[in-house]
Amino acid sequence: MAATFRALLLLLAWAKGRCRFHQSVSRANTGNDWLLAIPKIPMPTWRNIIRPTLFLLKKSNRHMRTMLSIGGWTLSTNFPIAASTEAGRLTFAQSSVALMKDWGFDGIDIDWEYPRNEREAEDFALLLTAVRNELNVYKSTYSPDYDFLLTIASPAGQTHYEKLDLKRISGIVDTFYLMAYDYSGAWDSYSAHQANLYPNAVNDTATPFSTDAAITAYLKAGVPASQIALGMPLYGRAFQNTDGLGKPFSGIGGGSWENGVWDYKVLPHPGATISNDDVAQASFSYDHQSRTFISFDTPRSLRTKVSYIKKKGLSGSMFWEVSGDRTDEDSLVATSFELLGSLDARQGLNQLCYPDSRYENIRAGME
C-alpha cells in the first residue's frame, strides 16, 4: 500500500484581519485538516463568521477535518491552574468538548507552551486523559461510529520535550504537531536559522537547534513516527545590523504582525538575495546594503522537509499559519500538498452531525 499523509493548516481566530482563505490554499485543501486557534471565550462577534465557513468547507471536502486549538504562547499561563486539580481538569475537558460540538469541529488540539516542571508535565498528561475521556463520552452518546481527534502542539526544544512523558502521551493523543520553528529570534546573540532540518557543525552559532534532533528524541522515547507531523513556518525571522548567518546582530526591525516577524508572502524583501545552507537544509535572505538577515522556508527547503517526512514515515505536515502563505506557484502549502501526494483518508469522512449543538444552523448541518 502506498504511504498516505496528513496536512494541517492553522487559521488564527484571534488576529483580526488575518483570518482569510487564499486561492493557493483552495487547490490544496481537499483532505487537509484545518485547525482554528482559539485562545479564550467569550469572543467578538466577527469571529462567528469563521464557524459556518469552516463547516461549509467540511461539507464540500468530506475528508477534511476541522479542529479547535486551545492555548498558545500567550495564554498558556492559564494551563497550570486549570490542570492542577481533578475538578479543574474535568471542567476544562467538558468545556472543550462543548465548544467542539457546538461549533461542529472534528476534534480538539491542546497547545500548552510549556509544562515547566515534573508536576506540570504530570498534570498535562492527566489533562489530556480527561479530554480524551470526555471525547469518548460524547462519542458513545451521539456518534458511536466516529472517532473525534485529540492532538497537541508539541515542542522541538530539548529543555521542553525532555520534561514530558512522550511515550505515555502517545497513548492518549492521535498526533503530535511538532513546532519545528522559532529556533532563533530576538532573544539570541547571533543571527541563526529558525527552522533548520539539521545542525551545521561548521557554523554552530547558526543552528542552536535542529528538527532532526527533536524527531530522533521523540522516536527514541517511543513515539511512533506515524504520530508526528512536521510543523513548518509561513513566516521569517529577521536580524538587523549583521554580517550574515551566524554573526552578531543588533535589532530585529519591523514586521508583518510583530517586530522581527515577516509573512512568507512578502519575502524576500526588495534588494535581498535568497541563499541556502545545504548542510543545515535551510533557506534565508540577506540584504548587503541594509545588513538584514531573514530566516524563512522556501520551496527548496520545503522539498527537503517533505522528503524527510516520507523517509522517516511521519504523519505529514503542519503550517503556522495559513494567511502568511503566497498565492502563486511558490505557495508552500500547495507545494507540500503536491509533493506529499496521497493524503490520508483512512479515518473516513468527517463529522457533519451535531444534534445537540447550541446553534441551530450547526444542528441542521448548514442546510
From TrEMBL:
SUPFAM superfamilies: (Trans)glycosidases, Chitinase insertion domain. Its main location: secreted. Residues 1-343 form the GH18 domain. Residues 1-19 form the signal peptide. It catalyses: Random endo-hydrolysis of N-acetyl-beta-D-glucosaminide (1->4)-beta-linkages in chitin and chitodextrins. Keywords: Carbohydrate metabolism, Chitin degradation, Glycosidase, Hydrolase, Polysaccharide degradation, Secreted, Signal. One of its GO terms (biological process) is polysaccharide catabolic process. Its EC number is 3.2.1.14. It holds the Pfam family Glyco_hydro_18. SMART domains: Glyco_18. The keyword Signal applies. InterPro entries: Chitinase_II/V-like_cat, Chitinase_insertion_sf, GH, Glyco_hydro18_cat, Glyco_hydro_18_chit_AS, Glycosyl_Hydrlase_18. It is an enzyme of class 3 (hydrolase). It is found in: Secreted. GO terms for cellular component: extracellular region. GO terms for molecular function: chitin binding; endochitinase activity. Belongs to the glycosyl hydrolase 18 family. Chitinase class V subfamily. This is chitinase. It comes from Verticillium dahliae (strain VdLs.17 / ATCC MYA-4575 / FGSC 10137) (Verticillium wilt).
